[in-house]
Design a protein that fits this description.
- This protein is mainly alpha-helical.
- The protein has a domain of about 110 residues: Winged helix-like DNA-binding domain superfamily/Winged helix DNA-binding domain (Arc Repressor Mutant, subunit A).
- Helices cover about 65% and strands about 10% of the residues.
- It is built from 7 helices and 3 strands, in the order αααβααββαα.
- A 3-stranded antiparallel beta sheet has the order 1-3-2.
- A hairpin with a 2-residue loop joins β2 and β3.
- α3 packs across α4.
- It is elongated and about 65 Å long.
């Protein structure tokens, strides 16, 4: 078995590669996003949730009730793909389907008391994770980053971009 040592030549090559990569904004966006997704996924996994389930719960939090189509649109999930996500959350007792009083062929979706408690826990855990992740930034840098990301989000989610 051959064991390679981490000598000066390898260290120099690594430093040059890292410098090259850190010069790319696209690489930095992708890498920081990957690390944020990893940490966020671990937090959600600890609560037994997936990112899509998180999105559905948090989108429902400020609402009394909504339709499956409206909820799907809000979180960016095709309505046909939303059914198993909604089923799983309903099975856990976090949301409920009720007949739509305006149209009996449709159902509205609303959080249960357990779902409301879960969204509170998700907000708190999310804030703690965000504080940890952005710890090295000043308040002004955080505000600037948020403004920049909001602008980029508006661009990539616009109809003109697609």
């Amino acid at each position: 078995m051959l064991i390679l040592g981490y000598d000066g030549a390898v260290a120099q090559e690594h430093a040059e590669t890292e410098q090259f990569l850190l010069g790319s904004t696209g690489y930095l966006l992708a890498r920081v996003g990957m690390e944020a997704r990893r940490a966020w996924g671990q937090m959600l996994g600890g609560l037994g949730l997936t990112p899509h389930q998180f999105g559905m719960l948090m989108a429902l939090a400020p609402l009394t009730a909504t339709s499956q189509q409206q909820l799907s649109r809000a979180v960016g999930v095709d309505p046909r793909n939303a059914v198993p996500i909604i089923d799983a959350l309903q099975h856990r007792g976090l949301l409920q389907r009720r007949p739509d009083p305006a149209d009996r062929r449709r159902h509205t979706i609303a959080l249960t008391p357990a779902g409301q408690a879960m969204t509170g826990q998700l907000r708190q855990s999310g804030e703690e994770l965000e504080d940890w992740f952005l710890d090295s930034l000043t308040d002004a840098e955080r505000a600037g980053l948020h403004a920049t990301l909001t602008k980029l989000y508006a661009t990539v989610t616009s109809a003109a971009y697609r």
